[in-house]
Known about the structure:
By secondary structure, the protein is of the alpha/beta class. The chain is built from six helices and nine strands; from the N terminus they run H-E-H-E-H-E-E-H-E-E-H-E-H-E-E. 34% of the residues lie in helices and 25% in strands. The strands form two sheets. The chain has a seven-stranded mixed beta sheet with strand order 3-2-1-4-5-9-8.
Amino acid sequence: MSTASLQHSPAAERNQGPILAHLLALLPRIGAALEIASGTGQHAAHFAAALPGWTWQPTDQHATHFGSITGWVAQTGARNVRAPQRLDVLHDRWPSEGTAFGAASFDLIYCANMLHIAPWACCTGLMQGAAQHLAPGGYLVTYGPYLEDGVPTAPGNLSFDASLRAQDASWGIRRIEDVAAVAAQAGLQLAARHAMPANNLLLVWTHAARNP
């Protein structure tokens, strides 16, 4: 297959190994995953290949990423990845086009590096949609840089936050406490926090009522 359609993120290539290690420790052998904002498709391809008992549904708001997603999947030879679908977390209906996902359809909803490059309303959309589509005992996993009360922010993240806000005033690194408040409104709670390389965090969210 030609690599002309493949988009490449150096950050995705660097972080996919550490993220996968946590997913392998967290997840059972069999399940169904929904990825929000799949982007280049590197994570979808890498994780699905390492989790053969899982079906992986990649999505993105922009269909321009679909060729790259399917290209990376083809390179791994993974057969457990569904065709990418368009999904805008601000829409009440997931996905935005085609057949709607059923309630409680996914054992994992995975979203990396979206919250800081999207308007704050997307956090609400993500949490509300995840609460609707997560199966009992399922996990929402988010990954990226965060601000935390009482925890010094790395200089690199401060600079990154400033550059994001200069590009778009609605962007910026989010406070975990603000994200957790929005999650609570949707019925989700923070179950685990994992420090990751390059001053990122991997956060695991669960249904609050089902995981007191």
